[in-house]
Amino acid sequence: MADPDRTPLLVVLGPTASGKSALGLRLAAALGGEIVSADAMQVYRGLDIGTAKPSAEQRAAVPHHLLDRFEPHQRCSAGDWARLARRAIAEIRARGRTPLVVGGTGLYLRALLQGLAPVPPRPPRLRERLERLAARRDPRRLHRWLAALDPEQAARLAPTDRQRILRALEVRYATGRSLGAWVAQAPFGGDVLPALKLGLRLPRAALYARIEARVEAQLAAGWVEEVRGLVRGGVSEQAHAMKALGYRTLLRHLSGSIDLESARALIQRDTRRFAKRQLTWFKRETGVIWFDALDPLCYDRVLACLGLETS
Predict the structure, then answer these.
(1) How many CB atoms lie within 10 A of CB 47?
(2) Is the same domain home to 283 and 272?
(3) Which of 155, 288, 299, 311 is such that its CA lies 20 to 30 A from the CA of 73?
(4) Which has the closest alpha carbon to 197: 98, 310, 113?
(5) By percentage, how much of the chain surpasses pLDDT 90?
(6) pLDDT tens digits, residue range 181-224?
(7) Are residues 298 and 225 in the same domain?
């Protein structure tokens, strides 16, 4: 009997608004499958409309995994997600079902399929000292400190990204080497999980039109109220989950600093830029079989690729 752990994992990837979720749902229904979400922000509870989480009806039709696993104030790293995803995949296979990983967070997908690089240990006392120091200092001052020690890593980080700045400082002091040097040595592990990667793409103009229409639909569905509810529930603007596209922009609208039309335009612009970064990432991804999302026969072609017939 073939080892189920070495059976190629089915992965559906592509930029935001390309139709990944719809394709994943159709494939799961055809294959008797369950979906593992590979979206960095769908793991957080309460962020539903803005992250385009599947609806209750869709979840009832096809089981979904790795949704709503973390509170907004918590942080789910690529390593955290990959460990949870591997566990979910094993459980799905143990039930005799087919796991489908569906999403557009390229780093998380690569962490799952190739593993993460070995990371330096975290000396507890050093971490505690840095945490105490960070509590008294402005993140921008910490960023300047990092720039003096590790200019290349500092250039990759926003001056307000407190956690990543602390991690870079921690690695530099604990090992005498920069975090970038560790990553360059071995950015990822070996081929942990064999996979069949199916990608969806479409012309840039069509993708951008879909993005703009989706933002309009999300706002009409109550996205502003969702953000207001998160604030009332005690979620801080600085919470990691609030980095999800659009949420901090809508916080600016709720504070009165920008009107809704301006917020809409900014979210659409930022989402277009995000999609462009995703496309750049996936161009470097090897072994992807690409399909035209606008092709009326796209689904049939995917089924043929899998050796299946259309019903």
Answers:
(1) 23
(2) yes
(3) 155
(4) 113
(5) 67
(6) 766 655 555 557 899 999 999 999 999 999 999 999 999 999 99
(7) yes
279 and 137 belong to one structural domain: no
What would the two tokens of residue 230 be?
Answer: 């998160």
| Cα-to-chain-centroid distance, residue 139 | 24
Q: What is the pLDDT of residues 27-70, one digit of tens each?
A: 999 999 999 999 999 999 999 999 999 999 999 999 999 999 99
Residue 310 belongs to some domain of the structure: no
Name the β-bridge partners of 292: 201
Q: Assess whether 130 and 178 both reside in one domain.
A: yes
Domain housing 37:
4-116+188-305
Contact between 169 and 130 under an 8 Å Cβ cutoff? The reply is yes
Question: Are 167 and 151 part of one and the same domain?
Answer: yes
Q: Do residue 164 and residue 256 come from a single domain? A: no
Of 225, 291, 259, the C-alpha closest to 18 is 291
